[in-house]
């Protein structure tokens, strides 16, 4: 804001808010009022661009389309819900970009939900947090829809095709403290890092299990083979019992190099 508005404009807004007892943030705060004003002005500008003429301009007579009032729409922002007036045209061909049709959330609300979700918060906790902090009434269905996008992206990433050959592959299990359904426990992340023929490292996959074992490692390696890996020159791993045998069972021509600690 400091780079967008002159200081005297900001001072005037803050002075007026103080005089009228208007809070800075919150549902009825100054930031929400400014959000409303900016969105509505942007929408009016989009309508002008769509029609090709300003409101009341005689050049628009006989153009075949014109303004047709507004409709009220409530959108959720990080500062709370905002009621905005969305302009309409008679032909119903206006497709706003700043607040698309059927969109009910703008700004970084989705990012906020995903950030809270990644920290182990349940949909109930996220719903309560958004309501208490931002005044946003986000249903559990909405939150689930947002977090499901992450799940879909993860599944797509986990099943993506891989290169046929990796000169070097590192496999190892990392113990992590994970919060699952409100309970913190120790789990193992099975990691496979491949070095391609250009010398670049790629995270080939990550699998979460309760404990580390050679039997599951064989499933991991088989999954990599099913995704397109045909040959690995050197597989670097630790001395977990049965792990070298699991490697040779899937990639029989690979050289297994155990790490030295």
Tell me what you see in this structure.
This protein is of the alpha/beta class. Helices cover 38% and strands 27% of the residues. The strands form 2 sheets. A 5-stranded mixed beta sheet has the order 5-4-3-6-7, covered by helices on one side. It has a two-stranded antiparallel ribbon with strand order 1-2.
Attribute tags:
two-stranded antiparallel sheet, 7 strands, Nucleotidyltransferase, domain 5, 27% strand, 3 domains, five-stranded mixed β-sheet, 261 residues
List the topology elements:
Blueprint: H1 7-20, H2 30-51, E1 67-77, E2 80-89, H3 109-118, H4 123-134, H5 140-158, E3 165-180, E4 183-195, E5 201-209, H6 214-226, E6 231-237, H7 243-250, E7 255-258
Parallel strand pairs: 3-6, 6-7
Antiparallel strand pairs: 1-2, 3-4, 4-5
Helix pairs in contact: 3-5, 6-7
Distance, first to last CA = 54 Å
Count of domain modules: 3
Q: Tally the helices.
A: 7
Task: Please state the structural category.
Answer: alpha/beta
Rg for CA atoms: 28 Å
Report the average pLDDT across residues: 83
Largest sheet: 5 strands, mixed
Helix content: 25-40%
Order of helices and strands: HHEEHHHEEEHEHE
Tell me the fraction of residues in β-strands, as a range: 25-35%
Strand order of the largest sheet: 5-4-3-6-7
Could you list the spans in which at least 5 consecutive residues all have pLDDT below 50?
none
How many beta strands in the DSSP annotation?
7
Shape: elongated
